TrEMBL record:
GO molecular function terms listed in the Swiss-Prot or TrEMBL record: heme binding; iron ion binding; monooxygenase activity; oxidoreductase activity, acting on paired donors, with incorporation or reduction of molecular oxygen
Keywords: Heme, Iron, Metal-binding, Monooxygenase, Oxidoreductase
Keyword Transit peptide: no
Pfam families: p450
Top-level division of the source organism's lineage: Bacteria
Family membership: Belongs to the cytochrome P450 family.
InterPro entries: Cyt_P450 (IPR001128), Cyt_P450_B (IPR002397), Cyt_P450_CS (IPR017972), Cyt_P450_sf (IPR036396)
Full protein name: Cytochrome P450
Naturally occurring in which organism (per UniProt): Rhodovibrio salinarum
Amino acid sequence: MSSYLQQLETTPADQRWPLARQWLDAEPLAFTRELRDYRPVLMLPEVTLVATDRDCREVLLRPDLFTVRLYRPKQGDYWMAQDDTTQHWREKGVMRAVLDLESLPHMRAWVGQETAHRLTAAGDTLDVVNDVTRAVPIAFVQHWFGFADSDANALKRWSYWNQMDAFWNQPFQAPGFATPDQITAERNAANTEMRGYLSQLIQSRAAALQAGEDGSDMVSRLLLLSGSQAIRFDPKAVVLNVGGLLIGAVETTSHGAVNALAFLMADPERLAAACAAARDDDTAAFDGMVFEALRFAPAFGYFFRTAERDATLARGTDYEIVVPAGTTVLALTHSAMFDPAAVAHPERFDPSRALRDTYTFGLGLHECLGRAIGAVMIPEIVRQTLSIADFRAGEIDRAGGPVPESWPWVRNAEGSAS
């Protein structure tokens, strides 16, 4: 054993997880490399850390054994808070069908135009987070998901507090930007506002449909499906799922785009290659750079699950261990993407890697519903920013929280992002 595990062993038990959490935030690759080598399943009082690709897959591909129980107090009756239920499969299937993935090329073109417009219209200063990486997904939701008459600031607030409460305000976490109760109160207030807006939106869309107006937007398509009674999908399900589209589209897109930009810009040679690829009409090579950047700097370094019964991990190895029922398990997918047993030359920046070989959009039953849209929106935002932006980047500000809150850039007379 070397430094990290030795430090943990000499640290009082109630301080080990806070220390490990600091390492996961500040030096994740070095810490998790040691875990893979010496303690691939590390049991701490609050959580169990799972570091290898093999065991991360076991956790994420066994929803019968490792569940999203911790989602339920945050997401209520929404299907994403369920594992392998009829409602989960039915509503997820419906939402996948109405996402209109045939329009992905048009969606990407729209995102490119919207991003370019916001960059070229900026003055001498630009907040990349609030002016671009959050603003473009919000505009996307308004244009493509049927929220055209909504207030952008309200959409941002509703998405933000739901994300903060569900994914960053769990019992094993220690949010630094607000107390747990404050975060939950903000989410409750946001959802009250959002339900009121969505109820009015659905009523207006239903009236428009009865009047013979076009029903091509996503809300209208869901209402048509619900009204047909061809499948169980009542108005309550419409409200929940339309809200879920908003919540899932904004903050994770912004976080991913900022992380990819920051990683590509951190090395001059990598930045030059990315800028050259960004100007090429063939986007495949550039997209590979973005997703490889997100392997090094993912928006989510782990996914959490709860063991519903005693579970064996690292089976058949010298580290085999039984994780007791009720344990909160963190599948350290950032570590898994650097596991040499699963990834060739993991330390090498290799844009030719397949996106499917990463955990960028999750894995298994709870893989990101909008992964196909995210897979064009994130790289296109980054591509346009590197192609057009003539700014000098400042420091990313997370305001004590888990996501980028602002990133000031100043106009660069030399004419390229730096």
